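Cross-check.
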Amino acid sequence: MRIRTSSVRLRLTLWYTLVLAFIVLVFSASVYLFVKGRLFQQLDLHLSEEFSEVASEVSEEPVDVHSSESENPSRLFQLAQGQRVYYQSATYRKAGLPDVTASPASRYRTVRPASGDRFRLVTDRTKSGFLLTMAESEEPYWNTLRTLSVILAMAFASALVLAAA
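Predicted model, tokenized:
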């Protein structure tokens, strides 16, 4: 007794669906990686601008660092000199971010304090010799990427169903 082979039509549909699945999967991964790269590039740019602004304020008058915090109370930053922390903004302390008293290997890095939220840090020396660390939460960026992942997954599933139909 011979098992009936699938029709040519069914085999072509399956191949077409598999090829389309591969193409959509590669496209989705490319979109995700591109958007992720752009989002974190924007985050680093924003942090650099904030860093420059605070660094110039500190270079002019390091004693009056409180004014920088009062101008923008949501700023997360820390100043260190030598091996001691000179100043931390209230939001920096509240976020539970680490004390940075030595230049790290990389200017930009991501840390996860006990709260579990991810923060992007930029650390560098100011003209006046202080070690300035600026921080910003990465959570809005990761929320955007999660939303994008859901949209791409739904588009992937829809494309496969439509291709098979």
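The first helix runs from residue 8 to 60. The chain has a mean pLDDT of 86. Passed to J.P. for a second look.
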